[in-house]
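re: ur question from earlier - yeah i can do the single chain one, its not a big deal. heres the input i used so u can compare w yours
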Amino acid sequence: MKFACFELQDWEEDYLKEKFGNTVDISFHSEELNIENVPAVKDADGIVVFIYSTIDKQVLDLMPNLKFIATMSTGFDHIDIEECKRRNIIVSTVPTYGENTVAEHAFALIFAISRRLIESHNRVSEGNFSPTGLTGFDLFGKTLGVIGVGNIGSHVIRIAKGIGMDVLAYKRTPDPKLAADLGFRFVSMDELLSQSDIISVHVPYNKETHHMLNSDAFSKMKDGVVIINTARGAIIDTTALVSALQSGKVAAAGLDVLEEESIIREEHELLHKEFPIEDLKTVLENHMLLNNPKVVITPHNAFNSREALMRILRITEENINGFLAGQPKNLAF
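and the output i got, formated as tokens:
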């Protein structure tokens, strides 16, 4: 059985080499798989790729032995799924890996704002140890509004309940049992906007969620609300957010994602050399969030824990083992 792996970092290559080097004929390639280099792996039975490898009909035509594709990503739009179906090629993905990781980062942003951590650190680094003017606020007893109650949103609710917050949540298809188990209420979007002290966004980005938080949504919120976004930047209308911050409608915002990041498909993509990270910096400097003292910005880092990245590899390992054992898992179709 021959396997070829593409787009791996050194530590990822070392991991898979240790796991499979003695059981399959496995080769490693730092670049993406494409029509130019596919002849070098034309005999492969299986491949491991990331999103920069385009697995289309042209590539598949040159790999007659291919039976299995493991993509180290949640999405699989870089793979011609219909062609894989036609050829009976199994495609496995990494459906989830950072639910608790992202939820914890959302609360890191909340704590940074509620306890004025950035300002406090900056003051002490300048040799000033006075707490005057650094008064924060308790989270206990405050109302957290969670927009989107999937795996990540559910973890956010668990953390919130653990520190004594009331939780309101919005989801297109409410789950009464989950609400009863975790002790929160599903409400309409309007009620969530009007009743929440802090609002945290956890929905996927699509046509329906584009600018979900716009000027109309901000107008329905409490004065002095705090906005947290660890989902996708374009869910929030940046112009509307800047205006709400200027007016005081929004007291503070914690943002791990920004509207200019629409080119991002997978968080793991940010760790690859192909991602044009400098392009973001240029665009960010052109709007008013980057240097706003009311805003805490992190560089799309909510997913980026050692454990989460290792889960990607371990799920990929499980996917390969499942294929080798004739019991494939995490299938794209």
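The two ends are 23 Å apart (CA to CA). not sure if urs matches, ping me
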